[in-house]
Amino acid sequence: MLASEERIRLLSLVDIFDSLSTEEIERLNGQLPDVHLKRGEIFYSPEDRSERLFVLWKGRVRVYKTTDRREFTLAVVEAGTLFGEMALTAQRLQEAYAQAMEKSEVSVIRHEDLERLILEKPEVGLQIVHLLSERLRRYETRLEDVTLKDITARLASLILLLLESEGVVGQNYLKIPTHYTHRQLGTMIGVNREAVTRAFTELQDKGLVELRRRLIYIADAKALREATGNRGNEEEQTL
User: What pTM was computed for the model?
Assistant: First the structure.
């Protein structure tokens, strides 16, 4: 498990805890039970009705739903992120699964503990409002992409979203540091692996993206943004 100092540092970076003092964060850290996850382990499912939030310390987690044996990825959670099933924060995992994409470490915050924290520190509640507004904007963008845009435009939007959330800026390059398979990308935009391959090839042929050592590099972010427009009548290919 991460050293206490590193856990406290990461916890202080979680948006809703910005207003807490070092002493308050240390106290909160001491109250959080830990869960160690293996790669591929599902630690939340539709059968789990308890209200909990998770703090992801290390690794990555995928939140997804299944319909007709198909999967749709709702979010890929990175280290330092708060997520989970709690009506108080509208972070709904109802009818969803949470799965570790790699070896991961999380801690659990119970509903009553967060509610007590908000009563003691109203600033935490205000931060939750801001956080939910930003996540709602992202969800609305994802919904618009899936329902209105063609496959290439969806993929372009997704790449920009991943760039915004985890992208690395280097000298003369932008890249997404996580390796995503075409199947994983497909579950995020509602299409099959073959459709992602064709769309990615189209973006490559236009000089907008590159694939190096299985990582996506953005060659022309401005043009990629232009490619996210609604292209209209391409035939949909579902998972």
Answer: 0.71
The model's pLDDT over 170-224, given as tens digits with 9 standing for 90+, comes to 878 899 998 999 999 999 888 899 999 999 999 999 999 999 999 999 988 899 9
Write out the chain in H/E/C secondary structure: CCCHHHHHHHHHHCHHHCCCCHHHHHHHHHHCCEEEECCCCEEECCCCCCCEEEEEEECEEEEEEEECCEEEEEEEEECCCEEEEECCCCECCCCCEEEECCCEEEEEEEHHHHHHHHHHCHHHHHHHHHHHHHHHHHHHHHHHHHHHCCHHHHHHHHHHHHHHHHCEEECCEEEECCCCCHHHHHHHHCCCHHHHHHHHHHHHHCCCEEEECCEEEECCHHHHHHCCCCCCCCCCCCC
- Domains detected in the chain: 4-144 (2.60.120.10), 150-226 (1.10.10.10)
Q: Whole-angstrom Cα distance, residue 82 to residue 84?
A: 7
